[in-house]
Design goal:
Distance between the termini: 20 Å
Largest sheet: 2 strands, antiparallel
Order of helices and strands: EHHE
Shape: flat
Number of strands: 2
Mean pLDDT: 96
Strand order of the largest sheet: 1-2
Structural class: alpha+beta
Strand content: 15-25%
Number of helices: 2
Number of domains: 1
């Protein structure tokens, strides 16, 4: 069985509107995922989920950066090139 794989999730030149739809949807999905982890941890164990809380903060900052770049692309009438590579590797559970 293969223990690693690499593939292009997103690759190409996009209009600012298309880039916004793609990237903001991904970031919002990840924020939602971590929000559900926080909710689940509080409901099931009565304690916070600090890793997810930090990740949400990072993702919100990334979303703001994306929105800024998209605004600049619109103002300059430019497209946005996205190259998102995904690497999967199996690791031993400790």
């Amino acid at each position: 069985m293969k223990e690693s794989a690499t593939f292009n999730l997103i690759k190409g030149s996009f209009t600012p509107e298309d880039a916004k739809e793609i990237l903001i949807d991904i970031l919002n999905s990840k924020i939602h995922f971590h929000s559900m982890k926080i909710f689940s941890s509080r409901e099931r164990f009565g304690k916070p989920e600090p890793v997810s809380e930090r990740k949400i903060e990072y993702l919100k900052e990334a979303r703001q950066t994306v929105q800024t770049i998209i605004s600049e692309a619109i103002a300059q009438e430019k497209n946005i090139v996205i190259d998102a590579v995904i690497e999967l590797n199996l690791e031993q559970v400790e």
